[in-house]
Structures are given as C-alpha cells and as structure tokens.
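pasting Glycosyltransferase involved in cell wall biosynthesis for the record, 398 residues
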Amino acid sequence: MFFTFLWPSKDGDGGSQRAAFLLQSLARIGAVDLVYLTRRKDRKLEDLVPLTTEVASVSIVKIGTEPISDRRSWIPWSIGRWVDYARFGSKEYPRFSRSNLRRIARQLPRNKTDLVFAGRLPSAALVDALLSSGYLHAKRRVVDFDDVMSKVIKQKARLDSRARIDARVYAALEAAAIGVAEDRATRTWDAVSVCTDEDVQTWPNRRVIKLPNVIERPLLPSSPGDGRHYLFVGSFTHGPNLIGLMRFLDEAWPSLRSRLPELSLTVVGMSPPAELKQRLANLSIPLYSNVPSVQPFYEQCDAVIAPITYGGGTRIKILEALAYGRPLIATRFAAEGLSLRNRRDALLVDGVRDFPDAMIGLAEDPALRSSLASNGRKHQQEFFSPETLAQAVRTMVL
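structre below
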C-alpha cells in the first residue's frame, strides 16, 4: 500500500511529481494499492488528474476534520493554527482519535499488506496510528521524508527576521515536534528515504537511503531568442519559491532593469498570492498562474532562474529546466544535492544580489548558453532520470 496526501501527477508540483515517480517505481516491483489521503469531504476520483501508472486499486480516504488554518474561517489564521495544534498536534505529524482511525480503517482496501510505503511524514503518522491500534497489519514499512522538514522550518525561522514572537514560538514547537518524529521513524521503521546525500548524513548509521528527485521531460529545440528572455517557474504554495522570487524582485530586478532594459522576465506558478500579483503588475512582469502545461513557457524562454535561499531536498523545477535543455542560473543553495558544476552544467551564484551580473553575462554569451543547456541536460539524464529512482526504490524495499 502506498499512502500519500499528494495525488501523484508528473505534471503537478514538486511533491506530486515525486509521488508519481515513486508510485511508478513501486508498481514495477509488484501490485500497489494507492491510498490517497484527504481532509476534503467532496474529493472524488473523477476530479483528479488521471494516473499514468497502473495500480491494483485506488482508495480516496477522507481522514476527518479539515484544519482551521487550511480553510476559510472567521477565526484568523494566526489563531487558527494554535487551535489546530491543540487539536491535532504538529501539522507534519498529527494525532488521530480512535473514532477517526476506525472511520479511516473502514475506507482502506484491506487491513493486511506485505509493505506499507508512506509518502512523507504526515502519512507515516497515520500509518503508525493504524498499526498501533490494530487496524492495519504490515510485514514491512518504509517512509519517504522527501525533505527533512525540521531543518526546513528552522531555516525559514532564521531567515524571517520580521516574524512575530508567536510565529517564532510556533515554528520552534513545530520544528522540535517534527524532529522527534523524524528521529523516531529512522529508529523504528524498516527504512527511511530522503532526496540528498546531505540529508542522509543527518542520521548516520541508520537505515536512511537517498531516493533522488527525478524528472521526465522532452529535450526542446534550442531557444530562438537573443538570450534576454528569462523564466521563473514554481508553486507559490511552497514558501521558498515565494520568498525567493520576492527577494529577487527587491534585490536584483532594479539593477537589471537599469543596466539592460530590454531584458525580460516571465513568471509561471500555482496559486500566487495577491501581494505577488500586485507586485508583478506594478513592475509590468507577466504572470501566468495555474497553467495546464509549463512546456510552452520553456519553449519561449532563453534561460531559467532559481533564486531560492532556503528549503530542503532538491528542487524539481531545477531538474525540469535542465531536462528541457534550458540554461539555468541558480543560487548555490538552490542547487544543493544536485552536484552541478559551475559554468559547466549551470551558472551558480552565492546570493540573490549576484543575479544581475550572471544574467547579463549569460544574455551576452550565446556559446555559454549553448554549452550550459547541453551539459545540464546530460547531467539530469545521467543522475536524475526515472530509471535511477526505480533502481534506488528496489534497493530500499526489497
């Protein structure tokens, strides 16, 4: 059984893409029952993107009350998250009542299985609760953390100097609770996976395995442009994308516009907040939200930027740019875990303020654009292809 809160989709956001390739890899080993977990009472299979992997069964399991902080409510979000914390505990490792577990168990395709694969820590929390309550029996259990969320939350808290004291206290409690749950899983589950070598070293001498993020995209023809059209792609429900782009607009865009006025930027992303929409409109930067496919935007751009300054794991949007054959400029932090070579596979910069020099230099160097596009694609195909993940998953679960 594969438990996940993220519907597997190779064209979705980073988490959904990872879920899709994990599901594909597991299906190569044996029959998989997909258990899709949701708090939405109206969620139906026909409303979801069709699966690209054949599975034994699909169960949409409704797991109870939606957190106040995740829905419209008369209660302010800053208060709602504290109410949710009192009711459910950590959002990444929630508690489940006995009655809720009984309702969930009745929705499962079966109560015995050879292997449980939990996609991310919240799914592992539910599996733990079902197993300990006797509602589920499994010979083996493995969990994919993807990111080490305790580290991600601590990074964000350090960077957000303007956060209110209650937000800082909440972040500290969340990081501590998640850290305890992560540590427990690495000791009690049969195997745990993360997506970078650096994260593997968080728990030395334990059964922690690297499952790299992967991507599958067609190589596009070379860009016909003059090197001055840049692209940013990312889901804005993911904090590092939103904060990274906002910092780019603050710290890099004014210099770029004054030094090379003809340089342009296009932003493509899911669920942009009103603040970002207004900011981009004021700067006359086109924004395309919730598009059915990002490929047309990659076809039209000359290069891609990734001004990410915090987060965890590897950025699938970076791999996507490389797979499409587009030159990439990224912070060294954004490229962590990808083993990219500066000026060979991508242009790597120390911080957001370094983007103007890099972008203008790349715009004026067609030979460099061509070599980065070619080498970046080769790097992605060698180290971050679906076959690479399939082999690692087989090693993990067998």
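The two ends are 15 Å apart (CA to CA).
The chain has 15 helices and 13 strands.
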